[in-house]
Amino acid sequence: MLVTVNGREQEIAAQTLHSLILSLDLDPSVVVAELNGSVIPGAEFTATTLHDGDTLELLSFVGGG
């Protein structure tokens, strides 16, 4: 399916938000996700199904100091 991730169209095989995050080599525990303008809580990543044409913004936080 074709989705937009962080402003770039991508053809993906992932069916859920969680599987997409893993396929991008991101750690779900430090990712904030917005799907079609709505923030998705981390606890809902596994249950959130993706659809053709979805728009996602993914932010990954890292510690530092």
UniProtKB/TrEMBL annotation:
Tell me one Pfam family matched here: ThiS
Signal peptide (UniProt feature, chain positions) = none
Query: SUPFAM superfamilies, per this entry?
Result: MoaD/ThiS
Q: Which domain of life is it from?
A: Bacteria
Which protein are we looking at?
A: Thiamin biosynthesis protein
Per the UniProt record, the source organism is Desulfomicrobium orale DSM 12838
